[in-house]
Amino acid sequence: MGKELSDIAKELQKSNKTVHLIYAFNGTGKTRLSKEFANLVSQNGDDSLTREKILYYNAFTEDLFYWDNDLADDKEFSLKIQANSFIRWIIDEQGQDQNIIFNFQHYTDDKLTPSFDLDNHQITFSFQRGNDETPEQVKLSKGEESNFIWSIFYTLLELVISELRIPEVGDRSTNDFDRLEYVFIDDPVSSLDENHLIEVASNLAYLIKESNREKLGLKFIVTTHNPLFYNVLHNELSNADKRRLEKLEDGTYELHKQWKDSPFAYHLFLRHELQRAIDENNIQKYHFNFLRNLYEKTSTFLGYKDWKELFPDEANESVRNSYKKRILDISSHSKHSSEEISILNEQHKQMLIYLFEDFDKRYNFYRE
User: Fold this and answer.
1) Cα(41)–Cα(277) distance, rounded to whole angstroms?
2) Residue among 363, 359, 285, 299 nearest 328 (CA)
3) What does residue 289 show for φ and ψ, rounded to 5 degrees?
4) What radius of gyration do the chain's Cα atoms show?
5) 92, 124, 209, 229 — which has fewest CB within 10 A?
6) Strand-pair category, 78-81 with 65-68
7) Given a cut of 90, is residue 222 above it in pLDDT?
8) Three-state secondary structure along 79-124?
9) Whole-angstrom distance, CA of residue 350 vs CA of residue 141
């Protein structure tokens, strides 16, 4: 029998490791674990983003923002800020607006500029052209929005490291971080393309290593469902405690020690689970996500631009596109029900069996 998430949170808190790197599939419970951990170390149960002892980033961080799409005129787009003290604190009190803009433009476009209107709880975006013309407001793509929200958090993390480097508490420009102990980061890469994902992971690893090198006393917990993000951090953070979170059938959890021989070793777990599902005639929707993970990371390793190139040789371009679309539809985590397939039929199952067996045979996966 496994453990409750609250027990795993306590285990992480008691650990003497300064960095925990945890891989888990979507829907396993990563975000709930971050909330359990935050509640455990929080003194007052406040649900704000910053606390005296913990700083955390998870799905609820993105929920601090929502778009006003100007449905009437389709001209004035603004990113609304939910009522909270964090944004005003980091911009007004800490004066970090220019650093946020710098980090955001680094990940996107050096002309794409946010403008903060905190009195009206909103942020607008436009492309600055360096002339007297009033720039047109634009709406960010989902990837740009994720980059912007991550840029706010990353700017704060840079500030934390910078301030804690100053040994004398009285010499620091702020004492807001003096009691900070934990940084919990849950999946900051849900909408990022591969290049930005690698850069986010590398930059985050740099700050973590700086914190450890300076012995600042911070403990980091990073969870992700993304194999590539995990792989970059695995290679960058050699001394991290590497785990895999699994949800058991009875609703409890296990935090497995991750394989040490290779950051891609969990692909053996994926293959094992797919083979077991086929053998037991128990193929579920999430198995298509397993298959998708195998295709995506194998194609990256082999240098293919698109993982559909790994589909059976006899499949023409139209068939390959059809296979890819079907896998994406079934494995999608979209909130829109029209983009999901709720029930697997026999044709879906046979497609998975055919594609997996072809993949397994041609790419010589390890067999027990």
Assistant:
1) 39
2) 285
3) -70, -40
4) 22
5) 92
6) antiparallel
7) yes
8) EEECCCCHHHHHHHHCCCHHHHHHHHHHHCCCCEEEEEEHHHCEEE
9) 36
Name the nearest CA neighbour of 220 among 59, 8, 18, 7: 18
The candidate with the shortest Cα–Cα distance to 33, out of 23, 46, 43, is 23
Cα(42)–Cα(55) distance, integer angstroms:
10
- Its pTM stands at 0.70
Q: What is the pLDDT of residues 304-329, one digit of tens each?
A: 889 999 999 888 999 999 999 998 88
SS3 282: coil
Beta-carbon neighbour count of residue 301 at 10 Å?
Answer: 12
d(Cα 302, Cα 194) in Å, to the nearest integer? Answer: 15
> How many Å apart are CA 114 and CA 128, to the nearest integer?
10
Quote the CA–CA distance of 311 and 354 in Å, as a whole number.
Answer: 10
Residue 317, classed as helix, strand or coil, is helix
CB burial class (10 A; 0-12, 13-18, 19+) of residue 130? Answer: exposed
Angle at CA of residue 258, ends 293 and 24, nearest 5°: 45
What is the spatial distance between Cα 257 and Cα 245, in angstroms, rounded to a whole number? 9
Instruction: Report the relative pairing of strands 78-81 and 253-257 from DSSP bridges.
Output: unpaired
For residue 247, the 8-state DSSP code is: E
Query: Which residues, in sequence order, are CB contacts of 358 under 8 Å at separation 6+?
Result: 311, 312
CA-to-CA separations, 361 to 25, 139, 299, 354, in angstroms, rounded: 25, 46, 15, 11
Which residues lie below 8 Å from residue 240, measured CB to CB, with a gap of 6+? Answer: 17, 19, 20, 21, 233, 234
Q: What is the DSSP letter of 50?
A: B
DSSP-assigned letter for residue 36: H
DSSP string, 141-175: PHHHHHHHHHHHHHHHHHHHHHHHTSSSGGGSS--
Alpha-carbon distance of 204 to 73, in angstroms, equals 40
| Cβ atoms of residues 24 and 36 within 8 Å | no
Phi/psi of residue 349, nearest 5 degrees: -65, -40
CA gap 254, 8 in Å, rounded: 8
Residue carrying structure tokens 């994926």:
270
Give the number of C-alpha atoms closer than 13 A to the C-alpha of residue 194, restricted to the C-beta side. Answer: 9
Q: Would you state the structure tokens that stand for residue 55, as one six-digit string?
A: 């700083």
